[in-house]
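Late entry, evening session. Most of the bench is empty. Finally got around to the prediction I had been postponing all week. Sequence below, unchanged from the version circulated by S.P.
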Amino acid sequence: MIKKILRWCTKGLVLSEIMILNFFILLSILSKSDQIILISPDLLTKFNSPLKAFLFQYISIAFAGILFGLANYIFSVDAIPRLLQFVLHFLSIFFIWTILSLLCHWINFGFTFLLYFLIFFILYLVVYFILLTIEKINIAKVNKKINYINSKKRT
């Protein structure tokens, strides 16, 4: 079980880094900047140092990534229907990401929160379906191996 939790946390950390990169790209595009924005100006002002602001943001993203990984536990509970797992996971991830976004000054509630939600939801769906596809491919590989082993036993 510990290995599984560590694997979830590692995946969460990697996925959070991917999502944050996409978030910064979208933020840069929406702000009509010709440069990528890696730290919000408000966070930079709060810390008065680009390095301190970046480190705070980096550590916050890493911690959130670990929480994202732990949120995946919901998918290992077979008694919960798949749709409810999806909804609970989405809400927990959205809550963690929103807190992270507020702490790092990426958004405020006055700034088109609906747009933020839509971007988040689209990115969540993309990552969810990629992971679901990978899971189905892995299941198919395991089933193929099992069928191969069973066919060898029969002969």
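Two things to note before I forget:
The two ends are 37 Å apart (CA to CA).
The mean pLDDT is 83.
Will write this up properly tomorrow.
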